[in-house]
Design brief:
Elements lengths: L10 H4 L6 H16 L6 E3 L3 E5 L8 H7 L14 H10 L4 E5 L1 H12 L2 H33 L8 H6 L4 H12 L7 E2 L2 E2 L2
Antiparallel strand pairs: 1-2, 2-3, 4-5
Helix pairs in contact: 5-6
């Protein structure tokens, strides 16, 4: 008799694999902290976040910071505290440090404590949807501006012009909020992104 075994969600975690979103965040912070051990600048930055030492008088670089603070065991070179806790302590010390995360990463950091994976994946989808809309609208606005200063036939199609929402004030507000602040609702004033 032939049998088909379907392995679904949860199989990896049931076998002790560290594949949750929280595990990913812990892995990410550990990699970042390990990289910062050799950074001789007060700013450590990648596409997800920027960590900055504001008070460079006391500590000029991240390598100096980790040299003078005993966060790692000198023998084993293991972190004495979970990397997430170290980063949270840095984030809480706003007098000496600044931690700026991308909107995407900040949403994930806030979500891992309170939401399940389905909710986090919905956050991914909503942010991707907003990003896609923002990229399309930025391109369209450039074309409209270009057409208004020096009209070139074919630079803006009639279809693109018809697809622009009637309420441009709301559209501009959406674009401004896309780069900062809380995520705006995706349906407003009768205009829907779906």
């Amino acid at each position: 008799m032939n049998r088909l075994v379907i392995i679904g969600n949860g199989f990896d975690m049931a076998h002790g694999l560290k594949t949750s979103y929280k595990d990913f965040i812990n892995w990410y912070w550990e990699r970042r902290l390990n990289a910062m051990l050799t950074e001789h600048a007060p700013i450590s930055e990648d596409c997800l976040c920027k960590l900055e030492i504001k008070n460079t008088k006391d500590c000029a670089s991240w390598s100096n910071f980790f040299f003078f603070h005993s966060f790692r065991d000198l023998k084993t070179r293991e972190w004495k505290y979970p990397p997430t806790e170290i980063v949270n302590a840095i984030r809480e010390n706003t007098d000496d440090f600044s931690v700026t995360c991308s909107r995407f990463f900040e949403t994930i950091l806030q979500s891992i404590e309170t939401k399940g994976w389905v909710d986090i994946e919905n956050d991914y989808y909503q942010l991707l949807k907003l990003c896609t809309f923002q990229c399309y609208s930025d391109s369209l606005l450039r074309n409209v501006r270009s057409a208004s200063t020096s009209f070139m036939p074919g630079s803006v199609s009639k279809r693109e012009l018809r697809s622009m929402p009637a309420n441009l004030g709301w559209w501009k507000a959406l674009m401004r909020s896309a780069s900062s602040g809380p995520m705006p609702p995706l349906s407003r004033n009768g205009f829907s992104l779906s």
